[in-house]
Amino acid sequence: MTTVSSWLRKTDHIDDETFAELKKIIGKPIIQSTEMNGETKSEAMDYISTAIDSCFGQNSKMSYETAAQYIKENMDKKFGPCWHCIIGEAMGFSVTFNTGNMIYVYMGGKLAVLLFKC
How many whole angstroms separate alpha carbon 9 and alpha carbon 15? Predict the structure, then answer.
C-alpha cells in the first residue's frame, strides 16, 4: 500500500522543506462534522492528533483500539463520562449523542475518528 507520504517522498521535484510542510498538512485532522464548542473541540482535536500520531510513529505499538481508549479516557477525565470513540476506515454509523458533544474527523485522508458523548 502506498501512502500519500511515501508517494510524496518518491516525487523528485519536492524538496525536504516542502515535503515537511505537506506532511504537516496531511497529518492534521480534517473536521467532517462537529457539534462541539471551542474548548471541547480543541481538547478533542489534541487528544485525537496525539493518539493517531502515536499509532503511526516509528516503533509504535499502539493500535486503533488503544488509540480510541486513550481518547475516550482523556475526554472522560476532562469532561466527565460517558464518551465513546470509534476509529477505523470505510465505516458507516448511526449514533445518538448529547447535543454539543460530537466530532467526526479524518486523518491522513482515509482514517476516520468519531468521538461522541451520550
Answer: 9
d(CA 102, CA 84): 10
On the CB side of 22, how many CA atoms lie within 13 Å of its CA?
14
Contact 85, 72 (CB under 8 A): yes
Q: In which residue ranges of the chain is pLDDT below 50?
A: 1-9
With a CB cutoff of 8 Å and minimum separation 6, the contacts of 18 are none
HEC string for the chain: CCCHHHHHHHCCCCCHHHHHHHHHHHHCCEEEEECCCHHHHHHHHHHHHHHHHHHHCCCCCCCHHHHHHHHHHHHHHHHCCCEEEEEEECCCCCCCCCCCCEEEEEECCCEEEEEEEC
